[in-house]
Amino acid sequence: MKLKLVPEQTSFDFFSRWKLWLGISGFMIVLALISFGVRGLNYGIDFRGGTTIRIESTQPVDVGAYRDALAPLGLGDIVISEVFDPTFGPDENVAMIRIQAQEGEEAATADLTRKVEKALKSVSPDLRIVSVESVGPKVSGELIQTAIIAVLLSIAAVLVYIWLRFEWQFAVGAVLALVHDVTLTIGIFSEIQLKFDLAIIAALLTIVGYSLNDTVVVFDRVRENLRKYKQKPLKEVLNLSINETLSRTLMTSVTTLIALVSLYLLGGDVIRGFVFAMIWGVIVGTYSSIFVASAILLWLGVKRDWSKPSNTAGNQFANVDA
Amino acid sequence: MLQIDLWKRVLIWLICAAGILLALPNAFYTRVEQANDARAALEVGQDSPELRARAAQWPEWLPSGLVNLGLDLRGGAHLLAEVRVADVFEARMESFWPEVRDALRPERAVIGTIRLLPSEKPDELRVRIGNPDGMDRAIQVVRGLARPVQSLTAAGANDIDVRAEGDTLVITLTEAEKQAVTDRTVRQALEIIRRRIDEVGTREPTIQRQGTDRILIQVPGIGSAAELKEIIGTTARLTFNPVVSRTTNPNVRAGAGQKVLPAMDEEGVYYVIQAAPVVTGEDLVDAQPSFDQNGRPAVTFRFDTSGARRFGDYTRDNIGSPFAIVLDDEVISAPVIQSHIPGGSGIITGRFTIEESTNLAVLLRAGALPAGLNFLEERTIGPELGQDSIEAGKIATVVAFVAVLVFMVLSYGLFGIFANVSLALNIALIFGLLSLIGATLTLPGIAGIVLTVGMAVDANVLIYERIREELRTAKGPARAIELGYEKALSAILDANITTLITAVILFAMGSGPVRGFAITLGLGIVTSVFTAIYVTRLLIVMWFDRRRPKTIEV
């Protein structure tokens, strides 16, 4: 007996309420943007400059005592947070300390690290500094710029590729789905104030790649069915294509999620934010390839008559049978 | 029908075998690493039974390439430093002023008085002249001081621009000269930093130039960057200057050609010294940490021949007067010359700790930086944290792998096992490729591998689902398999090429750990397409040839 995520053949009607789905997605995007506008992202030091120090001690973390010990140093804004992780041993207590970029300095000086270590050791003598990361304002500005360019560039590259391989309506659908995924990911990061750093940009780009992967598989089937059923209304063709690929869509999402969840639980706290972004992205991306990308395709309509040569730029590449 | 040429079969198996062979050393990481280190030591001429035993830990005929572990896994320090080139420009213009003054002086009849004005830009000299009518003459004279730029690319260009702003003569460095100076300064700094790090003796440091005036320094395996930074970041300009006077007033006026510098050890004490040094750190040939006659840490040094002569002459002529040992604009000590010191060696005493005297000796041996450094970025990861990350990554990968294997068998039965074989080969191929190209594995890189484990089965899933569909339309099993592969291909390629595009962009734009992620993701895509299209297919064809089943179940 084999495990089946969906029955052999399905005929769900995904598009009876397609305007509603698009509306919900649009509403979610607006919510994400509002959250981004109101709360803003909790930028890590990669993007705002400053220093994070990770400390480890056998004694329980006492955030208040640490704060009091650091206060006389006059370092400005200090955020101390305890880190919990199932992979830690019983007397492994970890905390992260974030110190704002110091006036007139780029990265942290050796002096700063030493002062902080000394101050904290007065609270728990066996404390050790296990990592120090410090980014100056100059570099963080450049990093933001590069990150934005990377995300935009990847979306643009994808737009061009899909346009060449399919038609422009497909490209618009796919790219709007990507924008949807990226916006919602940024939205959840601003809503729950998770640390947003360079690794999250990498996660965003992976989400772009994954969501696209999903969308392209659906679109590929749509293209095939459009040629096969020349008379069927577009809505039915889309529905059929999604139903046909549904089993694959869910299988791949499930295997990817299995891998990601094990990484989330067991991979340690250092990359947890990164993995969280990807888990979220896989879920949102799977949703968007059906309810955003395809719905937009339905909305825009597709040229149906494939018998005549077309002058749209895509055609010569679209017929290359990979 | 289901046919794969023999040469293709052989090639596929060869690629898989090569992948496994190349990946193999990583399974015995410590052992291979020790063997490699020992072999490298033997090659440079060291020899001991212990080394030979270590080298023999890994057979020589096996590949010994390892995946480099990134700093976030091995622990170590990553520093991005900016060379303060503007300092060099400033020094350059400062030293140019006497030249300009001497050239203009004979022309005073035409141009009137000359006076140096303060300038806001470091690479600029502003000189006001008393008689603006003489400006043309002044410009002509100063232009005569211009020299050609010393660089290969800017042949023919001059080093200075001279122009007039009202009654002020403005002398600036040309772009070509600035470029040449920047280039020279950064290269010198790079060399000095490399020497200093080599002196400290850590393994496999990466020291590279980035952009025009930045230097990236990565030193694996060290626990604290603080010390490293002190060693790299100190300019270490050592000079021996005649002392004019000692004072406790920091605002004391220094005469022409004199400087006021604070004492390093005594708070509130200042020395007025002659700015022109008798000898400098560049005249040193050796420096070693040692102890003075009272048993306190000190540094002994030795001058080269010309330095020794100047030092000897100076001490002979100035017995009884103090001279200052100045390090980076602080007076370490100002001993009184007791006697003629002819041998060219001496000792620097001060209130050093043993560590400080050791560091100072290292710095003096390696030479002074041509300009100061600003650290723009620092990332230090302790080796234990790196080890924890490796452990966590390993466990997560294994769990993810096993979970996906089980899930695939549950879903596709026998065909799931085929997919699993190719998934295992896929991981071997990723590690094989990583070792082959000497790529660096980072923590996000491990995440990339785990993600690949999840996504790699995608191509197989696409094919299997397609075969299921084709079976439904009641073609024979062989035909269904063939059609399944044929029709899934365009979806597989489109889907993976788009992901590959994002991986390439990540690689191009990212740095460090993020780039490590892009590498494993990109390689994972390539290998997963290969294993799905070729390896799984070969397995299925081989099974099919042997069994000739009437019906198949996917």
UniProtKB/TrEMBL annotation, chain A:
<feature type="transmembrane region" description="Helical">
    <location>
        <begin position="196"/>
        <end position="213"/>
    </location>
</feature>
<feature type="transmembrane region" description="Helical">
    <location>
        <begin position="274"/>
        <end position="300"/>
    </location>
</feature>
<keyword id="KW-0811">Translocation</keyword>
<keyword id="KW-0813">Transport</keyword>
<comment type="similarity">
    <text>In the C-terminal section; belongs to the SecD/SecF family. SecF subfamily.</text>
</comment>
<dbReference type="GO" id="GO:0015450">
    <property type="term" value="F:protein-transporting ATPase activity"/>
</dbReference>
<keyword id="KW-0472">Membrane</keyword>
<feature type="transmembrane region" description="Helical">
    <location>
        <begin position="143"/>
        <end position="164"/>
    </location>
</feature>
<dbReference type="InterPro" id="IPR022813">
    <property type="entry name" value="SecD/SecF_arch_bac"/>
</dbReference>
<dbReference type="InterPro" id="IPR022645">
    <property type="entry name" value="SecD/SecF_bac"/>
</dbReference>
<dbReference type="GO" id="GO:0006605">
    <property type="term" value="P:protein targeting"/>
</dbReference>
<dbReference type="GO" id="GO:0065002">
    <property type="term" value="P:intracellular protein transmembrane transport"/>
</dbReference>
<comment type="subunit">
    <text>Forms a complex with SecD. Part of the essential Sec protein translocation apparatus which comprises SecA, SecYEG and auxiliary proteins SecDF-YajC and YidC.</text>
</comment>
<dbReference type="InterPro" id="IPR022646">
    <property type="entry name" value="SecD/SecF_CS"/>
</dbReference>
<dbReference type="Pfam" id="PF07549">
    <property type="entry name" value="Sec_GG"/>
</dbReference>
<dbReference type="Pfam" id="PF02355">
    <property type="entry name" value="SecD_SecF_C"/>
</dbReference>
<dbReference type="GO" id="GO:0005886">
    <property type="term" value="C:plasma membrane"/>
</dbReference>
<keyword id="KW-1003">Cell membrane</keyword>
<dbReference type="InterPro" id="IPR048634">
    <property type="entry name" value="SecD_SecF_C"/>
</dbReference>
<dbReference type="InterPro" id="IPR055344">
    <property type="entry name" value="SecD_SecF_C_bact"/>
</dbReference>
<dbReference type="InterPro" id="IPR005665">
    <property type="entry name" value="SecF_bac"/>
</dbReference>
<keyword id="KW-1133">Transmembrane helix</keyword>
From TrEMBL, chain B:
<protein>
    <recommendedName>
        <fullName>Protein translocase subunit SecD</fullName>
    </recommendedName>
</protein>
<dbReference type="InterPro" id="IPR048634">
    <property type="entry name" value="SecD_SecF_C"/>
</dbReference>
<dbReference type="GO" id="GO:0005886">
    <property type="term" value="C:plasma membrane"/>
</dbReference>
<comment type="similarity">
    <text>Belongs to the SecD/SecF family. SecD subfamily.</text>
</comment>
<feature type="transmembrane region" description="Helical">
    <location>
        <begin position="395"/>
        <end position="415"/>
    </location>
</feature>
<keyword id="KW-0813">Transport</keyword>
<feature type="transmembrane region" description="Helical">
    <location>
        <begin position="516"/>
        <end position="540"/>
    </location>
</feature>
<keyword id="KW-0811">Translocation</keyword>
<dbReference type="GO" id="GO:0065002">
    <property type="term" value="P:intracellular protein transmembrane transport"/>
</dbReference>
<comment type="function">
    <text>Part of the Sec protein translocase complex. Interacts with the SecYEG preprotein conducting channel. SecDF uses the proton motive force (PMF) to complete protein translocation after the ATP-dependent function of SecA.</text>
</comment>
<dbReference type="InterPro" id="IPR005791">
    <property type="entry name" value="SecD"/>
</dbReference>
<keyword id="KW-0653">Protein transport</keyword>
<keyword id="KW-0472">Membrane</keyword>
<dbReference type="GO" id="GO:0006605">
    <property type="term" value="P:protein targeting"/>
</dbReference>
<dbReference type="GO" id="GO:0015450">
    <property type="term" value="F:protein-transporting ATPase activity"/>
</dbReference>
<dbReference type="InterPro" id="IPR022813">
    <property type="entry name" value="SecD/SecF_arch_bac"/>
</dbReference>
<keyword id="KW-0997">Cell inner membrane</keyword>
<dbReference type="InterPro" id="IPR048631">
    <property type="entry name" value="SecD_1st"/>
</dbReference>
<feature type="domain" description="Protein translocase subunit SecDF P1">
    <location>
        <begin position="186"/>
        <end position="243"/>
    </location>
</feature>
<dbReference type="Pfam" id="PF22599">
    <property type="entry name" value="SecDF_P1_head"/>
</dbReference>
<comment type="subunit">
    <text>Forms a complex with SecF. Part of the essential Sec protein translocation apparatus which comprises SecA, SecYEG and auxiliary proteins SecDF-YajC and YidC.</text>
</comment>
<keyword id="KW-0812">Transmembrane</keyword>
